[in-house]
Write a structure and sequence with these properties.
The chain is of the alpha/beta class and 308 residues long. It is built from 11 helices and 11 strands. It has a 5-stranded parallel beta sheet. The chain has a two-stranded antiparallel ribbon with strand order 1-2. The chain has a two-stranded antiparallel sheet with strand order 5-6. The relative contact order is 0.14.
Length: 308
């Protein structure tokens, strides 16, 4: 398949998708180039940057811009490498076994697909998922077929045990993995997924993992008021220049204090939350201005010291 282009001259509307809300995205030239380079090299793209710079949304937007299936996988401190491939519901099997009049089912019935299974073999994953409808299936884009491929997001990989990143890349390199209980494996289809991985720098990633990724650092947009205006327009809300500029100033102040205190620094996500909140609560410029400072205290200053 030819390597797709990503539009850098216009906004991309992102409709709600599963738990992902309505949003708008614009690729900058460096990010578009990084996505294309990762596909050309056949490597995952690791997105670095402070929280709120749009790392996770970049993967979702890449899928929307190219008509591919978006397969998200979120990492937490308990995640293991196998969780990215499949899930086994041992509790559900035990519960069913003790239910009055329950029919015995084999262990394979309690196996459900993980993100890699969906991205490698959607048809096989869907057949397995259809047995119990356990967990969420990826939302299919209009007109999508497996031949169009997928974008696989592995979100916040720095939260995982250090062994998980290397094990994940080993599965990608092998282009498949074995399945327990089914006596078969999953083999990647003819179209390789674009793999986007994010980190919030909470834990240093293994050097071997970094060597096998392309790395791109995302920064907050230079023109926050313009981004705020575009996001509000997507929601049919009005953002006034004076209010949007003041929201950006308040964000800068809170970020500076957070750096001094070495605490959590708000970012783009908080800025958008702030302007959306005031534009939803008040339609006039004066009304939004009156709400701005109080609302900023709830949205931006998340690490403020507790009162005595």
């Amino acid at each position: 398949m030819p390597i797709p282009d990503y539009p850098t001259d216009r906004d991309l509307d992102l409709d709600p998708c599963g738990t992902w809300p309505l949003s708008v995205h614009r690729f900058d030239r460096d990010t578009a180039a990084a996505l294309r380079a990762a596909e050309a090299a056949g490597r995952p793209l690791l997105l670095r940057g402070v929280p709120g710079t749009g790392k996770s949304q970049t993967a979702r937007a890449a899928a929307a811009a190219t008509g591919r299936l978006f397969v998200p996988g979120v990492i937490d401190g308990r995640s293991e490498a196998a969780d990215l491939q499949w899930h086994y519901d041992a509790v559900g099997r035990l519960s069913d076994a003790h239910a009055p009049g329950a029919q015995a089912r084999d262990a394979a019935h309690y196996l459900s697909p993980g993100p890699l299974w969906w991205a490698f073999d959607w048809a096989g994953a869907h057949r397995q998922w259809d047995l119990r409808r356990q967990g969420e299936a990826p939302v299919l884009p209009p007109g999508w077929t497996p031949g169009l491929g997928a974008v696989l997001l592995i979100d916040e990989i720095d939260k995982a045990d250090p062994d998980l990143p290397n094990a994940f890349l080993e599965v990608l390199g092998n282009q498949g993995f074995s399945l327990p209980f089914l006596g078969q494996g999953v083999v990647r289809g003819p179209v390789a997924p674009l793999v986007v991985i994010t980190t919030n720098e909470e834990r240093e990633l293994p050097p071997a993992f970094l060597r096998r990724c392309l790395v791109h650092i995302l920064k907050a947009p230079a023109d926050l008021p313009d981004m705020g205006r575009r996001h509000l327009a997507r929601r049919r809300l009005t953002g006034y220049p004076r209010v949007l500029q003041e929201a950006a100033r308040l964000l800068d102040g809170d970020r500076a204090r957070a750096r001094e205190q070495q605490s959590y620094a708000p970012g783009l996500a908080e800025y958008l939350d702030l302007v959306i909140a005031v534009a939803t609560l008040a339609t006039s410029e004066d009304g939004q201005w009156a709400l701005l400072e109080q609302t900023a205290g709830f949205v931006l200053d998340k690490a403020a010291p507790l009162p005595d």
